[in-house]
Amino acid sequence: HNTRPDARIPFQLLPQTATRTPFDPHKVTLEEIDEVLEEYDDGPFFCGDMITAADIAWAPYLERYAVQLPMLYSDALPELEPRSREYPAIKEWFDAMEDLIPCWACRVMGDPNVYAGLLKEAVEEEGVEYVDRVPKTVANALHRNSFPGDILWKQYASGKPYLAATPAEECAAQLVRNRQTLLETASSDTTTQIHLSKDDVDVALREICDSLINVEDDDQAAGLSPKAHDLVTRLTKDLTAPKDMGMLPLRSLRLLSPSAVDQITQPLNPSDITQKSTPPPSPTDSLFFS
């Protein structure tokens, strides 16, 4: 199956029908993966304490499963929630990929919002109910107190003079490098309530970059102007990982967006279960790269 980030959701819908695939095959798959991971006592990866081709091969499927199964099978949790305590070895594998492999979180890891968008796009065409929300177990993954983001970035950026010193500075650098594209696209966007001219976008970008580089407290968004807030909202909607930048730099930008922070901290409520929602951004398009 095609495992590119723009591939359709794998295996969750029966072909040419408006029904989900049966519950049992997904549960069996997760149980068997959990058992395989438990076979090696010396490490959390598929072949022990070192990452191998087996982990790389399974990663695109497992990170999609972690987002899409709980969204589509909300009536079958925690049995179909890969990052739950139901599957301790899988949960440990995810934590190890994020905490121990610098290139994963810094550049390779896929964007949960993209996988959620792919699911929404597919199921809304078929009228299938789903939870319109990235699972909290996934949304919180890079916001754990134990997540060593700064250490990982330092390891990843070592020996790479083209990378900035921190994820936030790397995000600012990417915005500066692609300033002209952002001026054109943001100023021509007619889908938002606030219209931004090119001058507005330029000033807002400067505010955002200044906040990314210089503000160290947790409330980075507090000092942004309304137009800068609006641009952050547009950027967090349109930019994706790993296509535009890695998850750690992108996370720095999303932390400037109140709506992104709300999605991380707010619990699920029944109104999130829906058949209709606003159209998701196209996961196949990149704001920076053609």
Can you tell me about this structure?
This protein is mainly alpha-helical. It is 52% helix and 1% strand. It has 13 helices and 2 strands, in the order H-H-H-H-H-E-H-H-H-H-H-H-H-H-E. It has helices at residues 23-38, 53-72, 88-100, 102-108, 112-126, 136-139, 149-157, 167-177, 179-187, 198-214, 226-238, 247-254, 258-265, and strands spanning 130-131, 273-274. Helix 8 runs antiparallel to helix 10 and helix 10 crosses helix 11 (226-238). It is globular and about 55 Å long. The protein starts with 22 loop residues before the first helix and ends in a 16-residue tail after the last strand. The relative contact order is 0.12. Residues 1-7, 261-273 and 275-284 have low confidence and may be disordered.
Strand content: under 5%
Largest sheet: 2 strands, antiparallel
Number of beta-strand segments: 2
Helix/strand-derived category reads mainly alpha
Overall mean confidence score, pLDDT: 84
Order of helices and strands: HHHHHEHHHHHHHHE
Shape: globular
Low-confidence stretches: 1-7, 261-273, 275-284
Number of helical segments with 4 or more residues: 13
Radius of gyration: 19 Å
Report, as a whole number of angstroms, the end-to-end distance: 24 Å
How do the strands of the widest beta sheet line up side by side?
1-2
Question: Which percent range fits the helix content?
Answer: 40-55%
